[in-house]
Amino acid sequence: MSTPPAPAPLRFGVNYTPRRGWFHSWHDFDEAHAREDLAQIAELGLDHIRVFHLWPLLQPNRTLIRAAAVDQLVRLVDLAGEAGLDVMVDGVQGHLSSFDFYPEWTRSWHHRNVFTDPDAIEAQVRLLTALGRALAGHPHLIGLQLGNELNNLVEHNPVTPEQVDHYLDTLLAAARDGLSGAAPGRLVTHSAYDAAWYGDDHPFTPEASARKGDLTTVHPWVFSANCAGRYGPRSPQVRHLSEYGVELAKAYAVDVDRLVWVQETGAPEPHIPAADAPEFARSTVLNAAGCTGLWGVTWWCSHDVDRSLADYPELEYTLGLFDSSGRAKPIATALATTVAELRATPPAPEPRATALILDCAPGTRSVSGPGGAYFETWMRLRTEGARPAVVLAERADDAGYLKARGITELVRAAEG
Question: Are residues 312 and 210 in the same domain?
């Protein structure tokens, strides 16, 4: 009888926010500045970054992709590789830290719904294909993601779940086509902020997140549904939030072996006071590492936004592991120490034998978010020492599925 292959080592990284000029630095990309930032990240013992170019700079006209901007992105990937860091590239930005970046050909007199307009979709196909082809031969590339939290754009681009499915399928195929010449194992993914999981009628669905792309990405933020405000910054609900996000995502997957990536989590002030941030980071990473099927954790973010830049929400200015002068903050030390410990003694979590049944009828997704009855039952069980998995009600009678996940006991939320 053959022995199943050992799981791949967990990945630990950070979302890269340039220290000088934030993402506006793409307007005058400086290799020396990037090298300095990347060296600081590598010194923490992290193994990868996630990077974001700006859509208007890459594709200022629907039929024009600027070679110089693509070359900047490729160069950053290579600089990261020189620092010992692998890179995940997000293609369509889209949304970053409360700002939306639309090319002018989608706006005002030329307004096009970026999710439904055929010309706008075709333009994004061209962009993702071009990025994939430019990046395919670079050994430090992890893969290509469609864009950062594209579901943040639904307010100005009304869309139905069926149209979202078409949009994601089309763009994922384009990214795969672009990377078709890459070495095996390159990822093609997409991401959504927490409304996809907790928003009752949000058009981006948990099923789309958990079934499209090569793995599931989750962005479990403590301000979503006022989690930290409801329960407190040191609460179990806050410190187990990323763990819960992984388990919730696994429930919606069809493939029981599908990996989940905690792709964004961070310590936003005042939701997490600075004094609590190091322990929050440590507990978040350790709790997530107790999940089977975890790909890795990528912290948000590398560097604080400089306060000389105006109009950001207050929490955006202090999310970095490094401050805006480049000094490592206590949270950076805590994260580096935790990662080193997990690398020295890799976790080997057992499957979760007990599962809490999630009966989430259409329009009731919020029961599984902070403040919801299901969320609170799961957290109570976790606080009492259980390690509950999540199982959708429609899979609760599927003996083969439960066996594949190692589940031997089911608990209904109402029975708590």
Answer: yes
How big is the CA angle at 44 (ends 43 and 48), to the nearest 5 degrees? 95
What one-character-per-residue DSSP string does 152-174 give?
A: GGGGGS---HHHHHHHHHHHHHH
The residue to which tokens 């630990």 are assigned: 12
* C-alpha pair distances (Å), 51 with each of 76, 141, 303, 342: 9, 11, 13, 24
Q: How far apart are CA 251 and CA 248, in angstroms?
A: 5
Helix H segments across 215-315? 227-231, 236-239, 241-252, 277-289
Structure tokens at 208: 């789309």
Average pLDDT, the chain: 96
pLDDT under 70: residue ranges of the chain: 1-6, 414-416
Q: Report how far residue 95's alpha carbon sits from residue 150's, in angstroms, rounded to the nearest whole number.
A: 7
How far apart (Å, rounded) are the C-alpha atoms in residues 140 and 136?
10
Query: Residue 264 sits in a domain of what CATH number?
Result: 3.20.20.80
Q: pLDDT tens for residues 23-55?
A: 999 999 999 999 999 999 999 999 999 999 999
**CB atoms < 10 A from the CB of 236, how many?**
17
Rounded to whole angstroms, the Cα distance separating 414 from 261 reads: 30
Helix (H, G, I), strand (E, B) or coil at 322: strand
- Whether 339 maps to a domain, the answer reads yes
- pLDDT, residue 5, reads 56
CA atoms of 37 and 19, how far apart (whole Å): 7
165 contacts: CB under 8 Å, gap ≥ 6: 208, 212
Task: Work out the number of other CB atoms within 10 angstroms of the CB of residue 415.
Answer: 9
* Same-domain status, 335 and 381: no
Decide: 388 and 370 in contact? Cβ < 8 Å. no
Domain range enclosing 396: 354-412
At 71, list the tokens: 């070359």
Instruction: Please give the tally of structural domains in the chain.
Output: 2
Among positive and negative, which fits the CA dihedral 196, 199, 204, 205?
positive
